[in-house]
Each structure stands twice: as C-alpha cells, then as structure tokens.
Amino acid sequence: MGPDITHWHGTYEIAKNFYTHLIPELEHLIEKGEASYDEGKQAAAKHLQATLDRILNTDNHKWYLGKMSAKQQEIRRQATESFKAQFKSK
Question: In the chain, is it the N or the C terminus that has fewer CB atoms within a 10 Å radius of its CB?
C-alpha cells in the first residue's frame, strides 16, 4: 500500500475509534461516577465531563454535536452533493 492510503486509513481508524468507542466509554464512566456515593468518583466524573465538553466544543468536533454554523452546514451539504454527483450515471 502506498503512503496516501496508509495515512488515510490510519486517520480513519483513529476517528472511528474516537467517536464510536472512546466517547461512549467516557460517557459511561461519567454516568457511573455521577451515580457513585464516592465523592472522589463524583469529582472525577465532573472533571471528565468538563474535559469532554471542552474537547467536543472545539471547531474540529462541533459537527459531532450538531453545532456547526449555517455556513459550515451549507459547505458540507455542497461537498456531499458534489461527491455524489461523481457517481451518478449520465
């Protein structure tokens, strides 16, 4: 495999695992910590939630939360249409 495909695939794997495995696991840990009677676990859950919120609210992750601006949404919509148009039969 060439460097382009290995770079793309590596980036894909990181993103896939981040959004489909890591975030759900962190959310589960936050829920467990908040429900705990241990004040240390509650504090850790609060800190973890604040950290996760801070990360997900950066520009690189706002799409995940549905917080893109109207301009960003339009750019993404146009890019999607352009991509799909490449595969339409004429």
Answer: C
**Is the overall model pTM greater than 0.70, yes or no?**
yes
**Inter-residue contact 45 to 32 (CB < 8 Å):** yes
Domains in the chain: boundaries? 3-85
C-beta of residue 62 within 8 angstroms of C-beta of residue 68: yes
> For the chain, how many residues are written?
90
Cα distance between residue 36 and residue 38, in whole Å: 5
Tens-digit pLDDT profile for residues 49-79? 999 999 999 999 999 999 999 999 999 999 9
